[in-house]
Amino acid sequence: MTTADVYLQQCINGLSLGAMYALLALGFTLVYGILELINFAHFNVFMVGSFVGLGTLSLFGVVPGAASLSGFMLAAVLLGTLLVTMVTSGALGVAIERIALRPLRDVRGPAAMITTIGVSYVLFNLVLLVLGADSKNFPTPLPSVSFAIGGAVLRLREILIWAVSLVLMGLLTWFVQFTRMGRAMRATAQDPEAARMMGVEVDRVIIMAFFLGSALAGAGGLMFGLYYNFTSYIIGFTAGLRAFTAAVLGGIGNVPGAMLGGLIIGLVEAMGGQLISASWADVIIFSILVLVLVFRPSGLLGRVAPNKS
Amino acid sequence: MQREAGELLEFRDVNTHYGDLHVLKNVNYAIGRGEIVALLGGNACGKSTTMKTIMGVVRPTTGSVLFDGAAIERLPTAERVRRGIAPVLEARRLFPRMTVLENLEMGAYTRKRGADLAADLDRVYELFPRVKERRTQLAGTLSGGEQQMVAIGRALMAHPRLICMDEPSMGLSPLYVEQVFDIIQQINRQGTTIFMVEQNAAMALSIAHRAYVLQTGQVVLSGGAAELRENPAIREAYLGELQVAPTA
Lengths: 309, 248
Known about the structure:
Chain A has helices spanning 3-35, 41-59, 71-101, 111-131, 156-178, 180-190, 192-197, 202-228, 235-250, 255-275, 281-295; strands at residues 136-137, 146-149, 152-155, 230-231. By secondary structure, chain A is mainly alpha-helical. Chain A is globular. In chain B, the strands form 3 sheets. A 6-stranded mixed sheet of chain B has the order 8-9-10-5-11-12, with helices on both faces. In chain B, strand 11 (210-215) and strand 12 (218-224) form a beta hairpin. The radius of gyration of chain B is 18 Å and the shape is globular. Chain B contains 10 helices and 12 strands. The longest helix of chain B is centred in the C-terminal third of the chain and has 16 residues, at 174-189.
């Protein structure tokens, strides 16, 4: 492998991580855009999502050590698992909103945010209690096909992450831009009281934001498992913090910003790891967070001035 | 227009509170079908609270609000919009990062899916040719006068029977104020009832049929617009006709 090949390889790795962070960052941004709430429970919705994905795959008979699938079966199993994981994770997000956050809707100050930290720990400890502390192997339904690009290797799992993320982000963008509910979400984010007076049922908009964000986190969790071939109760915090950084970097509340931020953080992690050392990845990422907060608190694509009409 | 029995909107002994602050005190209004009624008063007299009470953002502590004969004071805002009440909000409150067209579509949010919005858009564009020119622009980039036109257009998109306007002339140049009031009259002649909070009492009384005067949360005066225009107290307090002693 030449130096150029090494960087190409890190670029492939970085884009894959970035796609995953982007999926996760979108959930922070959707909820923040509407409630101005940082939802730390999101970290562990992602983690639970990876376990839901693992469970669903085993229901389809895909367990660690089983032969890889191909063709129609592979597509059907992956699509089925993705759907089940997303719907379950989305429902979990809605349940969190309904049970833990709605009663605090009119409470000023940080109570709701602190509650999300509490919910995050509840999920974390529930999984630890029920499923144990050892990490679980993820099955590998994907055949080990790979393509050589120069000296770098592009595997099927990377193509899968990219494809799934692109399609989901495309669907989300379409939903937010062109559907009635999407318009109501944007209107509520820009001026909740005016949206309400147009007849928007703000509760429904909030539920939709939690559902969509959590479903995307579930998809991210499944991708995590398929990419790294394991999952564990601890994966939420690292990935969640990096994705949160991505959302802030892109401009929290801004949908394209979360996608861009995710990709940048993924690339920084891979490239920084290559240039310095993998153990420095978090130092680099969180230094970026600090710099963004100091020099461009509204993020790359965020609005410089607050909501002024 | 066929005149139906009863008032379109009524406040019966409405009281509202913000915490310990008693804002509206036993307020009664009756807005008839097809009327333009103005609500006059100084700052912090309860005009905006009146609007918020109609829209369901503020709930009365006692008393009732009737729309078309039915009590609505416990209904959620969306249901009130569905029944035919549309707001033109203070300072317009468009969605700044949505296009003019999207803002208009938000006005029709409670209408049935597949409702024929094209005809309604045409009606708005006919009233405001300027809005049609700007339809693909972000609402936040429009001038204040243009935004007011979009705000009125957005209310019309709901097919309202009653439009509640909060300070439609605020922040507009005199030319736009004239235009906006012309349009309000035109909309009214097409059958929509208008209840309007307005600082600019002279303008408001020039188009309104009737008016209420609110002072620290109480209705202190009400009557026909022509009669109020001649009322010395009104002239002094709201029409700016103070006796100025000639300077020597």
